[in-house]
From TrEMBL:
<keyword id="KW-0677">Repeat</keyword>
<keyword id="KW-0808">Transferase</keyword>
<dbReference type="InterPro" id="IPR018357">
    <property type="entry name" value="Hexapep_transf_CS"/>
</dbReference>
<keyword id="KW-0812">Transmembrane</keyword>
<keyword id="KW-0012">Acyltransferase</keyword>
<protein>
    <submittedName>
        <fullName>Acyltransferase</fullName>
        <ecNumber>2.3.1.79</ecNumber>
    </submittedName>
</protein>
<dbReference type="Pfam" id="PF00132">
    <property type="entry name" value="Hexapep"/>
</dbReference>
<keyword id="KW-1133">Transmembrane helix</keyword>
<dbReference type="InterPro" id="IPR051159">
    <property type="entry name" value="Hexapeptide_acetyltransf"/>
</dbReference>
<dbReference type="InterPro" id="IPR011004">
    <property type="entry name" value="Trimer_LpxA-like_sf"/>
</dbReference>
<keyword id="KW-0472">Membrane</keyword>
<feature type="transmembrane region" description="Helical">
    <location>
        <begin position="12"/>
        <end position="37"/>
    </location>
</feature>
<dbReference type="GO" id="GO:0005829">
    <property type="term" value="C:cytosol"/>
</dbReference>
<comment type="similarity">
    <text>Belongs to the transferase hexapeptide repeat family.</text>
</comment>
<dbReference type="GO" id="GO:0008925">
    <property type="term" value="F:maltose O-acetyltransferase activity"/>
</dbReference>
<dbReference type="InterPro" id="IPR001451">
    <property type="entry name" value="Hexapep"/>
</dbReference>
């Protein structure tokens, strides 16, 4: 019975959530997301076009901005996002992928942790088993395959350290435009 209920919840989030996330009402979208996700912190904005799988394993902290067309996968373990995290458009975060070295096309799973004050730019892909340290910045179009240390700027395919972030990280995000 529990397995059947989990299957129904999975189908709802995978097939119906994209329709719900097109509703231009922030209040309606967030009310539904609060039922589907493990946690959404105060003053967090999730824009239209958001998609997820296995939302019961996805936690989003306070004062986060999750822009349009972001995809999050919680099937392979917990996906934890800290406070004051800015995730730009079209970012994909995966906790499960196929193992290219497995003869039977098996799965490779790993939790993803994104710590406080991280800025992930547009079209970044984050693969399973990765931790992105506090205050790190991930450049546009990067593919994150390994842990990223705190307060660095990383970019490329695969993402490598290309700079250092030198501010005090005192800001608090809050961005909620109309009809987004």
């Amino acid at each position: 019975m529990i397995k059947y209920l989990k299957y129904i919840l999975y189908q709802l989030t995978y097939n119906i959530l994209p329709l719900i996330m097109q509703i231009p009402s922030f209040a309606i979208r967030h009310a539904i997301l609060r039922l589907l996700l493990k946690k959404i912190g105060k003053k967090t904005s999730i824009f239209r076009g958001f998609e997820c799988i296995a939302g019961s394993h996805i936690s989003i902290g306070e004062h986060c901005v999750i822009n349009k067309n972001v995809f999050m996968d919680g099937r392979g373990g917990n996906l934890t996002i800290g406070n004051n995290v800015d995730i730009a458009r079209e970012v994909n975060i995966w906790t499960m992928e196929h193992d290219v070295h497995d003869d039977l096309h098996g799965l490779k799973c790993g939790e993803v942790t994104i710590e406080d004050h991280v800025w992930i730019a547009s079209r970044v892909t984050i693969l399973p088993g990765v931790t992105i340290g506090q205050g790190a910045v991930i450049a546009c179009g990067s593919v994150v395959t390994k842990d990223i240390p705190p307060r660095v700027i990383a970019g490329g395919i695969p993402a490598k350290i290309i700079g250092q972030r030198n501010n005090q990280l005192k800001y608090e995000l809050y961005y909620r435009p109309l009809f987004e």
